Amino acid sequence: MALIEWTSDLDTGIQVIDNQHQRIVEYINKLAHAQAHHSREEVAEVLDELVDYTLSHFAFEESLMEDAGYAFVNAHKKVHQLFVKRVADYQQRFKLGEQIEEELINTLRAWLINHIKNDDQDYSDDVRQKMQQAGKPKRGLFKRLFG
Fold first, then answer.
1. Torsion 39-10-82-124 (CA) sign
2. DSSP annotation of 89
3. The total number of structural domains that make up the chain
4. Phi and psi of 72, rounded to 5°?
5. 123, 72 in Cβ contact below 8 A?
6. d(CA 129, CA 139)
7. Inside any domain, residue 20
8. Given pLDDT bands bounded at 50, 70 and 90, which one contains residue 106?
9. What single string gives the DSSP state of each residue in 10-63?
10. Per-residue model confidence as pLDDT tens digits over 54-105
11. Structure confidence at residue 136 as a pLDDT band (50, 70, 90)
12. Could you tell me the residue range of the domain that residue 56 belongs to?
C-alpha cells in the first residue's frame, strides 16, 4: 500500500499541476520504500530526485501564478523557499549520517497534503481562469473584419 494515496480532494483542477503533484507523491512513496528496505543509497538517490523535481515544480507553479496575476504570489513563493530550506537541512543531516528518513517522510507527507489543500487551492481559481481565457479566441478588430 502506498504511503500517500492520491485522492480527488488533492486535485487543484489544473491538470498539469495535479500531474506534477502526483509525481511528487510517487517520489515520497519511493522514499518510504527505500527507507523500509534500509537502503541509504536508494534513499539518497530518491531524495536528490525529489528535491530536483520539486524545485522545477515550484518554479513552474510560480510562473503560472505570476501569469495569472495572483495577488499573493510573493507569499506563496516564501512558503516554497522555507520548504526548500527545510528539506535542504534534512539532506545535510542525512549526508552527515543521521537517520532522518522517517522524520523526513512524515514531514513531506504532512506538508504536501496541507500545501495542496490550502495554499495551492488559493491560487487555483485565478490560474484556471487565466488558462481558460488564454484558450478562448480573441474578439475585437480581427473578429469584426473576418468574423
1. positive
2. H
3. 1
4. -110, 30
5. yes
6. 17
7. yes
8. very high
9. G--S-HHHHHHHHHHHHHHHHHHHHHHTT-HHHHHHHHHHHHHHHHHHHHHHHH
10. 999 999 999 999 999 999 999 999 999 999 999 999 999 999 999 999 999 9
11. low
12. 14-146
Taken as a whole, the chain contains a residue count of 147
Instruction: Round to whole Å and give the CA distance between 52 and 57.
Output: 9
The pLDDT assigned to 100 comes to 92
Burial-class residue 19 by CB neighbours within 10 Å (0-12, 13-18, 19+).
Answer: exposed
Query: What is the rounded average pLDDT of the residues 28-51?
Result: 92
Instruction: Supply the CATH number for residue 23's domain.
Output: 1.20.120.50
100 domain-assigned = yes
pTM of the model: 0.85
* Residue 4 maps to a domain: no
Q: Given the C-alpha cell 541509504, which residue does it identify? A: 40
Please, are residues 70 and 76 in contact by the beta-carbon 8 Å criterion? yes
Residue 67 lies in a domain: yes
